[in-house]
Automatic annotation (TrEMBL):
This is Claudin. InterPro entries: Claudin, Claudin_CS, PMP22/EMP/MP20/Claudin. The lineage of its organism: Eukaryota, Metazoa, Chordata, Craniata, Vertebrata. Belongs to the claudin family. Gene3D superfamilies: 1.20.140.150. The keyword Transmembrane applies. Signal peptide: none annotated. It comes from Muraenolepis orangiensis. Its main location: other. Claudins function as major constituents of the tight junction complexes that regulate the permeability of epithelia. It is found in: Cell junction, Tight junction; Cell membrane. The chain crosses the membrane at residues 6-24, 80-100, 134-157.
Length: 161
């Protein structure tokens, strides 16, 4: 196996795992939009754990979601998938560290939101995608890239033998 590909895969996987950990508690998974209003006095934003509002003076008021069973299905699924990705990512990093052969240190080496947003007759608050989702998407891309590098590294090793 090529040790450089293994180290790059480890770094990409680790960076993806860290970004998933940053995205999980981020408050801005979706934020209220300002389109169609002249004066915005408050902004509403949500994540997987709470809904918050902030006014123009900078005061934040947050309310945690009261019950797991009362949540929408996409929030329950998102919570489960994010926590699963962090747990499995930790196992993956440990497995990668154990499996790296030549790179020892001594050798140098959400659908309903968009539907409501574009519906001109929707009476509620319209939300835009927040920074938490972008961080989560970046972590997914990095994790997939790291896994692809590991897969290619294993494939190259079998072809050499």
């Amino acid at each position: 196996m090529d040790p450089i590909v293994e180290v790059v895969a480890l770094l990409l996987g680790f960076l993806g795992w860290v970004l998933a950990g940053v995205a999980l508690p981020n408050r801005y998974w979706k934020t209220s939009t300002v389109s169609g209003t002249v004066i915005t006095t408050s902004t509403i934003y949500e994540n997987l754990w709470m809904s918050c509002a902030s006014d123009s003076t900078g005061v934040h008021d947050c309310r945690e979601f009261p019950s797991l069973l009362a949540l929408n299905g996409y929030i329950q699924a998102s919570r489960a998938l994010m926590i699963t990705s962090i747990v499995l990512g930790a196992f993956g990093i440990v497995a990668t560290l154990v499996g790296i052969q030549d790179a020892s240190p001594g050798r140098g080496g959400s659908c309903s939101s968009s539907r409501d947003f574009f519906n001109p007759m929707f009476p509620g608050i319209k939300y835009e995608i927040g920074e938490g989702l972008y961080i989560g998407w970046c972590s997914a891309v990095l994790a997939i890239a790291g896994g692809s590098c590991l897969t290619c590294s294993c494939r190259l090793a079998t072809e050499e033998k």
